[in-house]
Amino acid sequence: MATDTLTPPAGSAFSSNGKPVLEEARRRRLRRSVPTAALGLAALAASFVVFLALEPSSPTAVSVLVLDASVPAGHVITAAELRVQTITAKGLSVIPASHESAVVGQAVSTDLPAGTLLVPTDLAAAPGPGPGQAVVAVGLKEGQFPAELAPGAQVSVVSAGTSPSGAAIGNGAVLAQAQVYGLHTDPSSPLTSISLLLPASEASAVSQAGAAGEVELVWVAG
């Protein structure tokens, strides 16, 4: 059987598999370009992910606690001294409005003006009196203080004596203006121990009158 032999034109070149050298080279370049393009897309995607990770998150509107009155260091916060305000927070360490019940009854660590946006460091780590203040405990019977008293209430400490029958009678002298710092009841005792935050200069007089049972508390506007 006769076999036809294909003779390439002059000047052309064939590879070992019979394909033109130029066509084979073009195919190889194309095959190399596919993984290179894929790597380029992967690098682009990775750079976008890194960009998103480094890009600060968008500000978020949150409801926070703000002081509605100026208070001194050591002051015990009351619900009436707080208000809720919505702000756009971005990287702020604020106290959410939902934590109000945990803030009421806490002492502040420093003097704070009205309008202060409360942050955790504004609350005393270890509650206690501030400079020039003192905490005095007095033991009072029912009727010597309003039953509704709670920490944070402002009171007038009034000097009171007793009649021969033991009934309380007041002479009306105000020994100090104070803030209720805490209350403690003991089922085995008829007395309620009430801690009062007051000026240190008035602590001695209140302590002595309290020890003698000659103190009454009058709840006043704070």
Describe this structure in words.
- This protein is α+β, with helices and mostly antiparallel strands and 222 residues long.
- The chain has 3 domains: 18-55; 60-122, Antifreeze-like/N-acetylneuraminic acid synthase C-terminal domain (Type Iii Antifreeze Protein Isoform Hplc 12, Alpha-Beta Complex); 133-220.
- Helix content is 21%, strand content 29%.
- The protein has helices at residues 21-54, 100-103, 203-211, and strands at 60-67, 82-89, 133-140, 154-162, 168-185, 192-199, 215-220.
- It is elongated, with a radius of gyration of 40 Å.
List its salient traits.
alpha+beta, 3 domains, five-stranded antiparallel β-sheet, two-stranded antiparallel sheet, elongated, disordered N terminus
Mean pLDDT: 75
Distance between the termini: 121 Å
Q: Radius of gyration over alpha carbons?
A: 40 Å
Shape type: elongated
Contiguous runs where pLDDT drops below 50 for at least 5 residues: 1-9, 11-15, 30-56, 163-169
| Structural class based on helices, strands and sheet pairing | alpha+beta
Task: Set down the secondary structure blueprint.
Blueprint: H1 21-54, E1 60-67, E2 82-89, H2 100-103, E3 133-140, E4 154-162, E5 168-185, E6 192-199, H3 203-211, E7 215-220
Antiparallel strand pairs: 1-2, 3-6, 4-5, 4-7, 5-6
Short note summarizing the structure:
The protein has 222 residues and is an alpha+beta fold. The protein folds into 3 domains: 38 residues; 63 residues, Antifreeze-like/N-acetylneuraminic acid synthase C-terminal domain (Type Iii Antifreeze Protein Isoform Hplc 12, Alpha-Beta Complex); 88 residues. It contains 3 helices and 7 strands.
